[in-house]
Amino acid sequence: MTEFGFSLLAEDGQARRGQISTAHGTIETPAFMPVGTAGSVKAMLPSQVRETGAEIVLGNTYHLMLRPGAEEVAALGGLHTFMNWPGPILTDSGGYQVMSLAELRKITEEGVRFRSHIDGSYHTLTPERSMDIQRFLDADITMAFDECTPYPATEEQARLSMEMSMRWAERSKNAFQARAGYGLFGIVQGGVYPELRARSVEALENIGFHGYAVGGLAVGEGQELMFKTLDVTTPMMDRTRPRYLMGVGKPDDLVGAVARGIDMFDCVLPTRSGRNGQAFTRRGALNLRNARHKHDPRPVDEECPCLACRDYSRAYLHHLIKAEEPLVMTLMTHHNLTYYQQLMSGMRDAIAAGNFGDFVAAFNAEREEGDIPPL
Question: Which fold has domain 5-267?
């Protein structure tokens, strides 16, 4: 059985090119993980997700524990078999979703007691229960249970939240059942306060994890503050372990975070935006709902190999959106995920070749030039 591990293959400045080995395959980094919240990347077959270049997907502990239930998924062969995804899977701990329930949950040192958004039933999620659920799901990468510190938060609020997350991290580590090819990631918290981030990194590395995530960002602080927080956080993190920025983000977020030493990302943006008619391209985002696309025979992007760009025009996609045809959700999601995977592949190649700075300059120049009007 393959051991879980991270190989650092190249560095260019802070940017890193690597590989993560798991029980269900290898992940090339920097990597973007499509979000399959309830065991499905919305509007996509698993084979179509794979066609985009994705090697790993994300599943959601909170949603899967409520429906159909983690034990039920385990009885049916685990999440890989259940959703027909043979590659690696990362599951979040459920903490973010539970914290976002606000009036439906109560936080104590033990964990979080909350009411299901589905039927109002009561549940308790603790570090130990989160580890059990993620093991039942057969996640290749399990996330420690934490509290996602909200923004804005005072330094005192962020400190108390971070310290509890560190205690929960130790309980998560103690409850995690080590198996060959399976890894556990700790989550750095501390809001936008450098000293708290430093204390969190030190606490997690003293506990010891297979990888480390940066949590509590992309929660409303804006890109500038997110990058400033990464500037002080990632240099403190173990360079021999993978680094995961949770819940990020827009294409320029990904490029900026890779430049600051991040290896892994997830975000609902490409899938959710695709279902709502927004396409991400080398030249920026396009809203295919706009009337200017109604008669445009060109593909969304002439250089994109996705299902939408290969076989269909902007005019047809615009028509599908206006007619509310479900096919457009698949085509637009396929396009956006393909673009994201091509962006990650381009960054991997540039880091390996030692010209990541040139890649970033070209990325910014194309976006500044914008969409080219039809002839």
Answer: TIM Barrel (3.20.20)
